[in-house]
Amino acid sequence: MQQAVANLQAALAKHPNDPDLLYYLGRASGLLSKQAIDTLLAAYPDSARAHQAMAENYFVLRQMPQAEKEFLDALRMRPDTPELHLELGLVYAGSSQWPKAEEEFRAQSKMEPGNAEAAYRLGTALLQQGKAREARTEFERSNRLQADMAETLYSLGKAAALAGDSAAAEKAWTKLLSIEKQSALAAQTHFALAGLYRKQGKTAEAERETNEFQKLQNPSIPSEGEPK
Hints:
mainly alpha
C-alpha cells in the first residue's frame, strides 16, 4: 500500500490535478491510514494515541459523549499531546457546551500561542457566550497569525459590530468580499453589511448589499446592466 501511494504521488507530480489520479491517491491514502490506525489499536490499545484515534472516530460519527471520554483518557495519559485540547474543544462546541469549549481552546492557545485555529476557535466560543470584546481580541490574533482567512474575517466583523465598532466591522467584511465572491459566506457577509449600513442610515449602500445578497441566493437574478 505504501508503494502504491508513492507511485501515485509520482504520477500526480507529472500530471497535476488529474481527477483519476487524485481519486486513487485519496483512496489508497485512506486505506493506508486505516491500516496504520488498526495496527496502532491492536498493538497499543491503552496508549494515549489509541484513545485519541478512537475519539476522532467517535467525533466523525457525531457520538460526542464517547468522543469526550476517549479524549479525556488521552489527556490524562499524555496532557502535552499536540492538538488534544483543540479536538476536545471541538467536541464541546459540537454539543454547544461553550464554557467547556472555551476552557479547552484557551488551554490549546496557552500551549501553542502561534496556533491560528486555536485562537479562532476560542474567539468563536467567547462570541457564543456574548463576550464580543474578548472574542474580537482572539479573532484579531488569529488573523495576525494566519491572515485573510474568510471565516476569521467574518467572525471578526461580527464581533466588532456587536462591540459597537462599525468601522472595524465594515473593514473586515469588505476585506472578506475581496477574497470570497460567490460562496454562501459571501452572501452572509453581504446580508450583514446591509444590516450595518441600514443602522447607519446609508440607504443606498444597504440596498446595494441586499441586492448582492439576493443575487447570490438566487443566481437567476440579473446583475446591474444585464438585460432582465
